[in-house]
Amino acid sequence: xxxxLHEYPVVANWNGGRDGAGDLxxxxxxxxxxxxxxxxxxxPGGETNPEELLTSAxxxxxxxxxxxxxxxxxxxxxxxxxxxxxxxxxQGASFAYKSITLRPTITLEPGSTDEQVAQAEEMAHKADAYxxxxxxxxxxxxxxxxxxxxxx
Length: 152
Hints:
By secondary structure, this protein is α/β, with parallel strands linked by helices. It folds into two domains: about 1-50; about 50-150, GMP Synthetase, Chain A, domain 3, CATH 3.30.300.20. Helix content is about 30%, strand content about 35%. The chain is built from three helices and seven strands, in the order E-E-E-H-E-E-H-H-E-E. It has helices spanning about 50-70, 115-130, 130-135, and strands at about 10-15, 20-25, 35, 75-90, 95-110, 140-145, 150. Strands 4, 5, 6 and 7 form a four-stranded mixed sheet that branches. It has a three-stranded antiparallel sheet with strand order 1-2-3, with no helix packed on it. A hairpin with a 6-residue loop joins strand 2 (about 20-25) and strand 3 (about 35). The radius of gyration is 18 Å and the shape is elongated. The relative contact order is 0.15.
């Protein structure tokens, strides 16, 4: 099998120091995203920041991957809503991204069987292993999956 390299170019602009402002523009979407330093790090806040973006990237990648894994198993999924919480530990001037907890709620069609509910919960845990972004940070940032499966 031939190896393929996929590229995701982004341009980051920044002006100033801790109270500065900037933006990110991913080439594929072309949508500019304003960024700044969050208030908990003595910044102005009001825009997104790299810490939120890492949590968002893991949550988004996981949700997409879970959707693919669940559909490949032919499970009757109607939606996946993932709440994510990233935790950064501060010790003086040192910061470490410690964990991201993902709480997906997987909704199945009303007539789903108990076996399908159990399979969906199992696949919710397995989806994390296929998520590109989770795999990129694994070993450095703990990823915790706490799924809930419901019938609509």
